[in-house]
Specification:
With 455 residues, this protein is an alpha/beta fold. The protein has 13 helices and nine strands. The two termini are 24 Å apart.
């Protein structure tokens, strides 16, 4: 046990299968049960690679909360930081969080650095050979078309090395890999160019990144040319590198569901058995939002159940996941999390931003089925392959709301969904991820506490 901002804080580490070492689990449950807490806020990170990076992320965000809590409240609140093996890329700094965006990660910003055992627990040893072959190709960038095709083939093997047990509304990358190698690399190269050149976030009427254009390479001498866009070979390899990023993210998305359902859910249920009166509030960022959402499968239903609120921050999974009926499925079927609101004795809140290009552009680009042309991508982004972090939860009669300032009231319904538009506030961050990690805001902290009834 530690503390953050004066609130007691614990940590739990899951492996990729959702397991916790037995003694550590028992010790954690005993400490939580003996802490006499009224409320426990459980926060789960997204695609962090290192414990130190995730820990800095938690300290920054959770440190906001005690100062925002209701004055004079008798609630005794603690926090739990969840760690799970996801894959980070070192060129994705998190605003206002030191220790991210430059530490050990799978690839350096230019794709040339693979230090030591950098893939760590995120992958099995048998997969490391594939990863190192892929990164070697990114480093050397051979000009032969056959080498780009070999890269694409290796990506397919990497996907096949893990089971693809993922909900149909969240699928995508395996279909992407049935396209030809050059088309996939071109697709991502164009998307990155639109983002770097200041294109409008995907799905807006102005076009921009939504069009995934065949924009010409910048002329030599500008900033993008220095990054390799001016050379056709480098341009395609940059697109190939982004395709690899999406493949690894897809694997982490699948893993997030496993960790939530098999790890976090049973842990919360076990805690509930020991301390039935403890109010648990689940909060997740990015793929961590998928972890806490799938954890609902492993907890008792409301009102006797422990989960009193669910808050999803820039969630990187399908906006159809909670839908009772998928509009594109034939025969009719529900989303993987349909009906899970019955496991929450309080509000289910999704906070999103149109400045999040990680989920607004690159996520749906990876999720789209093979063969869909660029001309129809705006509709694809808005409908079939959209992510919660870009436009909220769909087909659940969610109540819309702006992200409000500290002290402002929210109208949140127990068991009901609320989509909170944070576009005006969650707006900082450059390509490729955009504002995806710009959540360390007082307004976002206030939202978490308002949902928990602690604001």
């Amino acid at each position: 046990m530690d503390d953050i901002g004066g609130w007691a804080h614990w940590e739990v580490v899951f492996d990729k299968d959702g397991d916790v070492e037995g003694a550590a689990r028992s010790t954690l449950l005993a400490e939580l049960a003996g802490a006499s807490l009224s409320d426990l806020i459980v926060f789960t990170h997204g695609w962090q690679n290192s414990v130190s990076g995730a820990r800095a992320f938690y300290a920054r965000f959770l440190g906001l909360l005690p100062g925002l809590a209701r004055a004079g409240s008798t609630a005794k609140v603690g926090t739990l930081g969840v760690f799970w093996p996801s894959l980070a890329w070192s060129d994705e700094p998190i605003p206002d969080v030191p220790g991210t965006g430059g530490g050990a990660a799978a690839l350096a910003a230019d794709g040339t650095e693979v230090p030591g055992d950098v893939f760590g627990a995120a992958y099995d040893p048998a997969q490391h050979a594939l990863l190192h072959q892929l990164t070697d190709l990114l480093r050397t960038q051979p000009r032969e078309q056959g080498e780009l095709e070999r890269f694409h083939e290796l990506l397919g093997k990497l996907v096949a090395s893990e089971p693809a047990d993922i909900a149909p509304e969240d699928a995508g990358v395996p279909e992407m890999l049935t396209d030809d190698a050059r088309s996939v690399a071109e697709r991502y190269a164009s998307a990155l160019e639109d983002l770097v050149q200041g294109g409008t976030p995907a799905g807006t009427d102005e076009g921009g990144a939504a069009r995934i254009s065949d924009a010409p390479s910048p002329v030599p001498g500008d900033d993008q040319a220095a990054a390799g866009f001016a050379d056709v070979g480098a341009r395609l390899w940059r697109g190939a590198r982004e395709a690899m990023r999406q493949v690894t993210y897809w694997q982490m998305k699948r893993r997030a569901g496993t960790v939530g359902e098999r790890g976090l859910g049973p842990l919360v249920a076990g805690l509930h058995q020991r301390v039935p009166e403890l109010r648990v509030h689940l909060v997740g960022h990015s793929f961590g939002a998928r972890v806490v959402s799938f954890a609902l499968r492993g907890v008792p239903p409301a009102p006797q159940g422990p989960v009193k609120s669910l808050v999803l921050l820039q969630a990187a999974f399908s906006h159809w996941a909670f839908a009772p009926r998928l509009p594109f499925a034939s025969p009719s079927r529900a989303g993987a999390l349909a009906g899970m609101n019955a496991r929450v004795d309080g509000p289910l809140v999704a906070c999103f931003s149109r400045h999040d290009s990680a989920v607004g552009v690159l996520y749906p680009l990876a999720s789209r089925a093979a063969g869909e042309d660029a001309a129809g991508l705006v509709d694809v982004l808005r409908e079939r392959w959209g992510a919660i972090g870009y436009d909220g939860v769909q087909a659940v009669q969610a109540t819309p709301s702006p992200l409000r300032s500290r002290g402002s009231a929210y109208q949140l319904t127990p068991g009901g969904y609320t989509n909170v538009d944070g576009t005006e506030i969650i707006a900082t961050g450059g390509p490729p991820a955009g504002a995806h990690s710009d959540i360390h805001r007082l307004e976002v902290g206030w939202l978490v506490l308002a949902a928990a009834g602690l604001g």
